[in-house]
Amino acid sequence: MTTKILMMVSAADSLTLSDGTAHPTGYWAEEVAVTHDLLTGAGAEVRIATPAGAVPTVDPASLDPRGGVDEEDVRRYRAYLDSMGPSLAAPLRIADIAAADYAAYVLPGGHGPMVDLAFDGDLGRLLVEADRLGKIIAPLCHGVAGLIPARVEHDAFAFAGRRMTGFTDAEERETGLDLTWLVESRLRQLGAAFEAGEPWTSKVVVDGNLISGQNPQSSADFAHEVLRAVRDAAAASG
Predict the structure, then answer these.
(1) Measuring CA to CA, which residue among 187, 5, 23 is closest to residue 112?
(2) Contact at 8 Å (CB) between 211 and 224?
(3) Which label site among 27, 50, 84, 204 has the fewest CB atoms less than 10 Å from its CB?
């Protein structure tokens, strides 16, 4: 049986900074391209979903050497995203997804999730149900912001006390963007056991069915850990 994985991608294209100015944003090319490539290369069926089924926008900085991406990688990521064209152009609606339908739920980053996924009630309800069913929940980098709307009784954060990582405050400061809030700080406030690795180095944290990666540099290690987890879950289910 083919493993079905849902990649839930931000559809935001603009981020409001602390001074009120708009900054271009979207999903981070490496995180979508590398993760999707490794998952599908291992035989998984990966579908794309966004809030309201809106077509997602790639963060322009993630395809620009000025954004810290090598020119060779820019060409590679751009070509891979082009090959994903049909699925990116016609994403599913997060609100229409049933938690039982997929083995894993992957949330790539870019600053986009801080704009839409972090406030998406449909996503929050889906993740709560997916967690209850023991599905793999896998945020990467800023994708961890997508956990924030997952709430249970009395508006408690569904992932309080869980070990996780994501884009760190230290890394955020190095981007030079003056944001209105920071992912690491917000998750710690909500009760997450957030683990910050060295900036710009690969770090993956596994806490049961919750798998998280710190930054774009974690993309490959993160994808391999997701694959391991879905294979183990399939083997355990017979």
Answers:
(1) 23
(2) no
(3) 84
